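Record passed on underneath.
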Amino acid sequence: MTTTAAHPRFAEALHDLGLDQLHTRVRRFPEATRTAAEAAAAIGCELSQICKSLIFAADGVPVLVLMDGSSRVDVELVRRELGVAKVTRAAADVVRETTGYAIGGVPPFGHRTRTRVLADRNLLAHDVVWAAAGNPHVVFPIAPRDLVEHADATLVDVRERTA
């Protein structure tokens, strides 16, 4: 693990949000941290301490959902929360076009376009969560409440419940 600069757009977002201190906490791993399981293994944290940044299409409009790494998004709950007819996972090209990042490296903020953001309340169960910093090898730690604030997210309950 080495310290490295985040993706340039994400680094700019950190600066714009007054989070310059996070630059020194960004970590790069030689192995990809594209999935929550890969990231948790590389960092040495619980799977639920990973913050996934997932783009969905809500009636065709991109929306970002921030979810802990051990949970899945219930698209029906997202649909109800947004008051739309249909919610689906966004295609890879839509993710890149909307955020400016490839799947596996999408950070919770610093996107190419302004997108509505929902953050699952379960993220608040931790003192620190880890999120992608613009590419599949780079992550950063942040307090969940700070994450929600800086992502301009609405706290919701959209986690899939297990039987």
